[in-house]
Structures are given as structure tokens and as C-alpha cells.
Design a protein that fits this description.
0% strand, globular
Length: 82
Amino acid sequence: MHKHLQKETVRLTVDFPIEQHTFIKMMAAKEGISMRQFIIEHLPGPELKKTKKKTINKTKFNNLLEEIITEYADELKSLSNR
């Protein structure tokens, strides 16, 4: 790609709790995309179509995460070994 056609980017390093990292990795794998692409596509921004935001409290998030971890234990173990 020509340099003048590339979008300017910056690098951002974020530390996630291991449970969130695993969740993001699993969701990205489910969509068949990289974790980077998953995060970019799921963040609000000027280039993304406007979608209705869903909010979830920490307790509900943790309960859902626990369900996912329990239901997909074998798949998650496989992903964490990659």
C-alpha cells in the first residue's frame, strides 16, 4: 500500500485481567478474527456504524463469564495453549 494511503496509527498497550483476555480471545476466535481486529471492531469510533450500546454491571459480566468458562472449558484450554 502506498504510504499516503495508509491511515496514521498509534500503538496502545493495555493490561487485561486474565479472565477478560481469555474472553476476548474466545470471542475473537468465534468470529474468526484476531484479537486486535475484535477489539477495534467493538470499540465505538467515528468510522464505525452507530449501534445501541449494551451496558452490563460487573456482577452480571462475571456471572456470564463464569458460564462461558464452564460451558467452553475444553475450547478455552485449547486456545490458551496456542
